[in-house]
Write a structure and sequence with these properties.
16 strands; 8-stranded antiparallel β-sheet; Cyclophilin; globular; 5-stranded antiparallel β-sheet; 13% helix
């Protein structure tokens, strides 16, 4: 039987119930269809975040195509050759499929017969019933990860943004962030493998590298807050037996 975990687990929230993301952890992608803003998580996937940040800072992503876009699944980009496979001259990034959470770090919001579900920041986290098995990021709509080939050790520069919940990717692909703004842009991208007329990333930068006036102004609901607790309870009532951890990803808003 599904249930929301005790409210005492949801403590330590900011007084407003919303938090302002650190600009250093925001990836701003200006595309031919509009702006996408991603909050990445160095805590969950530090190597992936470091690589994507480096490539954005040096301009590698500027102008690259969304070369693989599958309706209801994902949008993939980030290959300098604008095709699936390959990468930069940099060494591949090792997998970061699992989250070795620290005590009190995850806000657990839901229990199931298969384990527990919760959040680290804006990312949905799942942990099974095996106490020796680490947690992992749930691959929900809007989650962003490292593309790769069949070999798990081949992630390099490609990134994907999920256009639909794709839980078959759980603990098999490195997830490093989540779309806070622009999921409608992701959904609007031209579909194809490759698309006949592909969209492109025009400029990709960390928000901290942009002039202050050009930075996105966003807030995201703090998962430790009473506001989030009430919001999650309302989601549970409305979704009923269909509720999943993907439904509990905290909302973001533009200021």
């Amino acid at each position: 039987m599904l249930r929301i975990l005790p409210l005492l687990l949801l403590i330590g929230a900011a007084p407003t119930g919303w938090r302002v993301p650190d600009p250093a952890n925001l990836l701003v992608i200006d595309t031919s269809r509009g702006r996408i803003v991603i909050e990445h998580s160095p805590r969950v996937a530090p190597k992936a975040v470091e690589r994507v940040g480096l490539l954005a800072r040096r301009g590698t992503y500027d102008g690259l195509l969304f070369h693989r876009v599958i309706d209801g699944f994902l949008a993939q980009t980030g290959n300098p050759d604008n095709r699936d496979g390959g990468g930069t001259e940099l060494p591949n990034v090792s997998p970061e499929f699992w989250v070795d959470e620290q005590p009190g770090e995850v806000t657990w919001v839901r229990s199931t017969g298969d384990g527990r579900e919760g959040m680290i920041g804006s990312l949905p986290i799942v942990k099974g019933t095996d106490p020796f098995m680490p947690a992992w990021v749930a691959q929900c709509t809007g989650v962003v990860g490292m593309g790769r080939q069949a070999d798990p050790k081949t992630a390099n520069s490609e990134i994907y943004i999920l256009r639909g919940s794709s839980r078959a990717l759980d603990h098999d692909y490195t997830a490093f962030g989540r779309v806070l703004l622009g999921q409608a842009v992701v959904t609007s991208l031209a579909v194809g493998e490759p698309p006949a007329q592909p969209d492109r990333m025009i400029v990709v930068r960390s928000a901290s590298d942009l002039p202050i006036q050009n930075r996105p102004r966003l807030e995201i609901m703090d998962v430790r807050s009473p506001e989030y607790r009430r919001w999650a309870a309302a989601k549970r009532r409305s979704r009923g037996a269909k509720l999943s951890v993907c439904d509990l990803m905290p909302p973001a808003r533009q200021l």
